[in-house]
Each structure stands twice: as C-alpha cells, then as structure tokens.
Amino acid sequence: MPPRRTPTARQERLGAELRKMREAAGLKATEAAALLGVNSVQISQIESGISGVSEERLRRLAAHYTCPDEELVSALAVMASVRTRGWWEEYRGSLPHSFLDLSELEHHASLRWDVDFLHIPGLLQTPDYARALFSYVNPHFSADEIERWVEHRMKRRIIIEQPRPIPYEAVVHEAALRIKVGDSTAMRAQLSHVLDLSASDHVTLRVIPFTVDRFAGAGSAMVYAGGPVPKLDTVVRDAPHGTVFVDAAAQLSHFRTLFRRVREVAFEPERSRDFIHQLAKEL
Questions:
Q1: What is residue 2's predicted lDDT score, i.e. its pLDDT?
Q2: Residues 254-264: pLDDT tens digits?
Q3: I need a surface site. Which of 36, 76, 112, 227 has the fewest CB within 10 A?
Q4: What strands, in cross-sheet order, belong to the sheet with 242-246?
Q5: Closest CA relative to residue 250, chosen from 10, 19, 20, 48
Q6: Contact yes or no for 229/71 (Cβ under 8 A)
Q7: pTM over 0.85
Q8: Once rounded to an integer, what is the mean pLDDT over residues 160-174?
Q9: CA distances to 209, 218, 220, 265, 279 from 213, in Å
C-alpha cells in the first residue's frame, strides 16, 4: 500500500494501537518487520498511520505479539479492512482536517456523549445558530465559505437523526443556553430544536444550572465517542493550538470519570426539558 500524505485520525489510531501492542510485548520494530518480511521503516509507517496494513498482516502481528484481547484485535481488523470514503470526503481541501476526522469518528461511533458550557453542542445546533457562530469566529470568511461550514455541521447530525441513530447524551450548562449566539428569534428556534430532539428515545439531555453549589467543572467540556470496544473510545477536545484527539487508556478513564461527575450535578432529563422550555419563553 502506498504511503499516505496525510493520514486521518482513524488511520493514526489503528497504527498507534499496533505500536502499543508491540511495545507491550517487549518487541522492537525490527522484530515485527522480520515477521512481515519488510524493513523497520515500513513498520514505523504502519504504526504512524502513513501506510495501511491488511487484515491478514494485522492478525499475524497480533498473534506474534500474543495479544490476549481478541475483541480488540477483531475491532482493529475491521478498521484495517473497512476503508470508508464517506460523505465528509467532499469537504476535503475546503475544511480543516480535524472536521473531517471528527465526522469519520462519529460515523463509526457506537455512542456519543457531549459536555458543553459555552455553546449548544454541534449535533444539536440549528443552521442559524451555527451560521452565527462561524461568522463571528471567522469574520474574514466569505458567505460561501460560511455556508460550507454550516452545511458540513448539519450533515454531521445524521448520526442522531438517521433511522437507526446511536445513543446520544449531552450535558449542557445553563450559560450555553442563555448566551445569544444569534438574535432572540434564532435562539428561541434553537432552544425549540433542542427540546424536539430531547424528546427522542435515543437522546438524553441534562442541564447544569447556575445555582449548583461548589461546581468547578467548567473545564470538562468534551466530545466522547464510543468505539466498537471501550479501548477504542476517543475523546475530542478543543485546545489553543487546535483540536486534540485523546485515546490513552488513563486519559479515557479520566474523562469517563469527569462525565459522570458533571452528569451527577445536572438536572434529570424531564426537569432539564422544563428548564429549557422556560428559558425559551423568556426570550
């Protein structure tokens, strides 16, 4: 397989898991290379996502590494063999790579959790809300560029609006519901849209009110995407230097704990719906 110029986050994750597996076995890249009849540079390229690996070669490596987790190996085999060119590919070259990586991650996700404190989560946004947000953050963009970004965000909603949606849970702070990203009319429509979605069986929405005592978790914003097995879960976070995809076991455990903590202080779904309904009436 020819080297890739820019591997996707999913391709990098596959390679990273193979590297973790090799290192856990205490083997060097040269030993893995000898097994496949290649050189260590090619192993390095596979482990960085620059080069692909066939399912047959992946299973040979896993067997050589004596990996005991058959569910993980099978999930990685699927990642190696299924090379989806999804709807997001039409945006390659016109949107940041992280946007496309997130779309691909969501496409393969088994569940999705969101925690947000300043904005309505992307999957719950209306076109007008997203347009106002992108226009403010990117004032130098043309109207066509803004519409491109909005169109992409709306297409991402397919994972919770398709006939067989994935389970989705969001914890949103009251601040995100009160900040008028657009005008009052757009914000009222946005809250109405959130209420409509929260009535779906697969969507769970909780609100953290300003009145919660001793809440210092405003730095816990995250996108949590469940993988085919828990070891392949991923957390996506915005950072000053760009979007970060987190997949280390210790960090995933940390963010699962954070999610549980913010969920515990939030209103239950029914009370959250009543709260949002009241906010909408005040606009």
A1: 61
A2: 999 999 999 99
A3: 36
A4: 203-208, 168-173, 111-116, 222-226, 234-239, 242-246
A5: 20
A6: yes
A7: yes
A8: 96
A9: 10, 13, 16, 9, 21
